[in-house]
């Protein structure tokens, strides 16, 4: 049963998340310097006695192994710790940043899926034509260009030279929230975050569709007089969607990675910019909290991808 499969996957998710956080915590211990320095104000040096008190209040006087289990205990209770910069709860910081990131990633993913599928289908249906060659070359260029470079070029051309879009931010400072103003700020970062994924989806859609078009059942349908449009839409496309769904499920982590650069370039107040600020400030609690949320999102995406397989192809079952 599908319910049983989902339950097993959710049970496996818990030790996987613990393992991810454990590995990250070990890596953070190799960062040179004292973790207490991130909490000490740089413009007001504190005495040795104050450092001892602060170290004890933060639990930094315990061995790393003990500190990790303290963090794990607090996390299971919903407490992700305090930020080093302003002692704000990490959960509040993530809650404030996750909304803008979901909006950016959701818009980018929608652009990538819609345009990737449409252009992939057109390219496969017109194999060898000018459109096919143009879209294929564009896909290779999109896959080859790193997100931060695309973002910088797009910011320079469309914001600084052409002045078509604002240079960054979530909305215009000092003005009340307006949907059009927000969309005006959203279009540019979402479009450039989608370039890599759009190219990947288009390329895989074209390849999978061409493979299905060459199958015997497609040639039989065409020989019986079924139109090319119906053969593509009702037969070839549905069977070609399985590898495309795999790609869509796999690009979620790349969206998270690309968001770090795109949000930094366009000053978008999301998880990517927050994560980068945590790394730069050596804010262990913030980095651990964002990693936990990100890992959970990736594992959930993999589960949804598996479920989508069964929806698209009824032959796939997850029974015992």
In short:
With 320 residues, this protein is an all-alpha fold. It is built from twelve helices and no strands.
Between the first and last Cα atoms, what is the distance in angstroms?
8 Å
How many distinct helices?
12
Average pLDDT, rounded to a whole number, is: 80
Return Rg in Å. Answer: 24 Å
Overall structural class, as computed from helix and strand content, comes to: mainly alpha
Low-confidence stretches: none
CATH class of the domain at 90-312: Mainly Alpha
Task: Using the 3D structure, state the CATH architecture of the domain at 90-312.
Answer: Orthogonal Bundle
- How would a crystallographer describe the biggest sheet? none
Gross morphology: globular
Strand content: under 5%
CATH homologous superfamily designation of the domain at 90-312? MetI-like
Q: Which topology of the domain at 90-312 does CATH recognise?
A: MetI-like fold
Total strands: the figure is 0
As a percent range, the share of helical residues equals: over 70%
Query: Order of SSEs, N→C?
Result: HHHHHHHHHHHH
Characterization of this structure:
The chain has 320 residues and is mainly α. The chain has a domain of 223 residues: MetI-like (MetI-like fold, Orthogonal Bundle), CATH 1.10.3720.10. Helix content is 74%, strand content 0%. The chain contains 12 helices and no strands. Helix 1 runs antiparallel to helix 12, helix 4 packs parallel to helix 12 and helix 6 crosses helix 7. The longest helix has 38 residues. The radius of gyration is 24 Å and the shape is globular. The model has no long low-confidence stretch (mean pLDDT 80).
């Amino acid at each position: 049963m599908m319910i049983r499969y989902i339950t097993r996957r959710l049970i496996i998710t818990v030790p996987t998340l613990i393992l991810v956080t454990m590995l990250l915590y070990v890596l953070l211990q190799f960062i040179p310097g004292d973790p207490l320095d991130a909490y000490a104000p740089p413009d007001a040096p504190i005495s040795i006695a104050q450092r001892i008190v602060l170290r004890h209040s933060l639990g930094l006087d315990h061995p790393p192994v003990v500190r990790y289990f303290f963090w794990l205990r607090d996390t299971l209770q919903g407490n992700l710790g305090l930020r080093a910069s302003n002692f704000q709860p990490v959960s509040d910081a993530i809650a404030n940043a996750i909304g803008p990131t979901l909006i950016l990633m959701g818009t980018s993913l929608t652009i990538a899926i819609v345009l990737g599928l449409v252009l992939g289908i057109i390219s496969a249906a017109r194999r060898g034509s000018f459109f096919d060659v143009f879209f294929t070359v564009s896909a290779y260029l999109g896959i080859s260009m790193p997100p931060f470079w695309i973002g910088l070029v797009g910011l320079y051309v469309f914001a600084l030279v052409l002045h078509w879009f604002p240079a960054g931010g979530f909305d215009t400072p000092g003005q009340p929230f307006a949907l059009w103003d927000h969309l005006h700020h959203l279009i540019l970062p979402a479009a450039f975050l989608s370039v890599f994924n759009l190219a990947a989806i288009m390329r895989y859609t074209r390849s999978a569709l061409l493979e299905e078009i060459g199958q015997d059942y497609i040639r039989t349908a065409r020989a019986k007089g079924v139109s090319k449009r119906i053969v593509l839409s009702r037969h070839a496309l549905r069977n070609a969607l399985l590898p495309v769904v795999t790609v869509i499920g796999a690009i979620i982590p790349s969206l998270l990675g690309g968001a770090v650069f795109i949000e930094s370039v366009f000053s978008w107040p999301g998880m990517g910019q927050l994560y980068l600020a945590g790394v730069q400030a050596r804010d262990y609690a913030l980095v651990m909290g964002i990693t936990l949320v990100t890992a959970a999102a990736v594992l959930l995406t993999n589960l949804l991808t598996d479920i989508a397989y069964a929806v698209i192809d009824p032959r796939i079952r997850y029974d015992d």
